[in-house]
Each structure stands twice: as structure tokens, then as C-alpha cells.
Design brief:
Length: 288
């Protein structure tokens, strides 16, 4: 059977009846005045309806629709959990930045062979200048981590001539003076040691990937020569900073580095990091 098509007058009458029903549900009185006549050529204009009813129809319908809307359509208070089902195809929630949650995403397995490891596999020509600003990565970390610095020009870079390091690993303040016999007192540590990175995934990287890793500021912290040498190639299962107040920040940075570069953790390392993070469950991973 062909669908029934209402003439213009019938369509207007149907719309008017629906509008009246909405207004009645909202407690709005019946539309005043006689119903407008319908010209043969079609329904009345919006202006004609408003004149006939002596009131703004569109505004009343909008207010009435809001008044009779079901409670579940009302906007939720700020911070409240939505009562509606997720929209299919909606963007996924941003991943957690809690260090414990990021740790849980890392693969867990044993170390690979250390065969072929050498520092030069990561830093073939020493500290690089990957951003081509004239300063090596070491100089940029000294500029970032030292305070009360004085600078001097060396080529295109203003290097740190002297400064003060609040050593995060020992908790002590150490002075820095540039010179052939004094510069090495402050060193730049790879938070995930290069030896550990090698046996947890970096062995299979290209030379360019290893160099980018070894020069990433996220992977660097200035510390004293004594602390850097004490750590060596250890992971968190075999070495943690003596300064216990810094341990949460230290392992969170290790987790951030391993997550960024797809390195795995050993079972013992995962357990050691998790124990530290138990004392700071809301610690987030750094991004730089």
C-alpha cells in the first residue's frame, strides 16, 4: 500500500497537535485565540502563527521541550561520571601517566646477551649535538641541572664555566668548575644505563637509534662522579640512589625512558621498581 501523504493543511494541523501535546505536558496553558486559517497554497508562516497566537511560539516550544525532557538528558554536573553508554567510535581515553600504570605496560623477560656491547655503540663520537645548536648534550644537561652558573663562549655554545649541582643521587650540593682536572667531578648519568639498555632491547637497534637514545634529555641527569661510577650498568634491582627521597622520581624516569624506547624490564627489575612506587602511588612519569 502506498504511504499516505497529508496535504499542507493536514501537516500543519498535525504539527499544531504535537505542539499542543508538548505544551500540555509542560503545564503551559492552551494556545489562546482561534486556530489560524490555512491558506490553500500551504501552511501559515511562522510570523502568521505568532500573530494569531499573540505569543512567540518558537520560544515557548523550546522552553517546554527543556521542561519535559527526561532527567537522563540533562547535562551532568562537572566531574560527574556520565550515565550514558559510550558513543561507538568515540576517541579512547588518554593513557595513564601514573608510573605504576606505565610500568605495567612494559614487557617482562630476561636479559639478552651482552655480546658486542661497548659505549661507542651509543656514542661513537662522544656526546653529540643532535639539535645542531652548537652545544653537546652534556653541555645542555649542565645548563639545565646546575644553578648559580657562569658561562663563557666556546665556539657557538655558551658553556657552563662554574655552577652548583644539587646532586639528586646523594642529596648533597657539589660545586662545578670547568677545567681539565675538575670538570669530571660532575658527570651526566644515563638514567637507564647504556649497558642495561643493550641487554633489554637496544642491541637490535640501528646506530642512529642508539645515538638518539643516548642523547635524549629524558635519559640524562647530572650527578657526581662517585655516584655515576657506583651505579655503573646496574638496573633498579641492583642499584638505587642513596638519597631515598629521590628514589620515586628516579624509577619513574627509568620507566618513562623504557616506555618511550620499547625496552623491557627483567622480573627482578620490575619487582624493585614496583616496591619503590608503592610508597608514591600517584607519581607520574616525566616527559622530558
Amino acid at each position: 500500500m502506498a504511504p499516505r501523504v497529508l496535504p499542507p493543511a493536514g501537516r500543519v494541523a498535525t504539527v499544531a497537535a504535537l505542539a499542543a501535546g508538548v505544551l500540555a505536558l509542560a503545564g503551559v496553558g492552551a494556545l489562546a485565540g482561534p486556530a489560524p486559517s490555512v491558506p490553500a497554497g500551504g501552511g501559515p508562516s511562522a510570523l502568521a502563527l505568532e500573530r494569531a497566537l499573540d505569543r512567540p511560539v518558537a520560544g515557548e516550544l523550546a522552553r517546554s521541550a527543556a521542561d519535559v525532557a527526561p532527567a537522563w538528558l540533562a547535562p551532568a554536573p562537572v566531574g560527574a561520571r556520565s550515565r550514558l553508554a559510550p558513543v561507538v567510535g568515540a576517541a579512547p581515553a588518554a593513557p595513564s601517566t601514573r608510573a605504576a600504570d606505565v610500568l605495567a605496560t612494559l614487557a617482562v623477560k630476561g636479559r639478552s646477551a651482552a655480546t658486542g656491547y661497548r659505549r661507542g655503540a651509543f656514542l661513537p663520537d662522544g656526546w653529540a649535538d643532535l639539535d645542531r645548536d652548537g652545544c653537546s648534550t652534556r653541555e645542555e644537561i649542565l645548563q639545565r641541572d646546575l644553578t648559580r652558573t657562569t658561562r663563557k663562549r666556546s665556539g657557538r655554545c655558551e658553556v657552563v664555566a662554574s655552577g652548583l649541582l644539587a646532586d639528586p643521587y646523594s642529596g648533597r650540593s657539589v660545586g662545578f668548575t670547568r677545567g681539565p682536572r675538575t670538570s669530571a667531578a660532575v658527570q651526566v648519568d644515563h638514567v637507564v644505563s647504556l649497558g642495561d639498555a643493550w641487554v633489554t632491547g637496544a642491541r637490535s637497534w640501528t646506530a642512529q637509534q642508539r645515538e638518539a637514545f643516548a642523547n635524549d634529555p629524558l635519559e640524562q641527569l647530572a650527578t657526581t662522579a662517585a655516584q655515576n661510577e657506583a651505579k655503573g650498568s646496574s638496573d633498579a634491582a641492583s642499584w638505587l640512589p642513596p638519597n631515598k627521597a629521590f628514589r620515586c622520581a628516579y624509577v619513574a624516569r627509568q620507566v618513562a625512558v623504557k616506555a618511550r624506547y620499547g625496552l623491557w624490564v627483567t622480573p627482578a627489575e620490575q619487582a624493585a621498581v614496583a616496591r619503590v612506587l608503592d610508597s608514591c602511588p600517584d607519581r607520574t612519569v616525566p616527559s622530558s
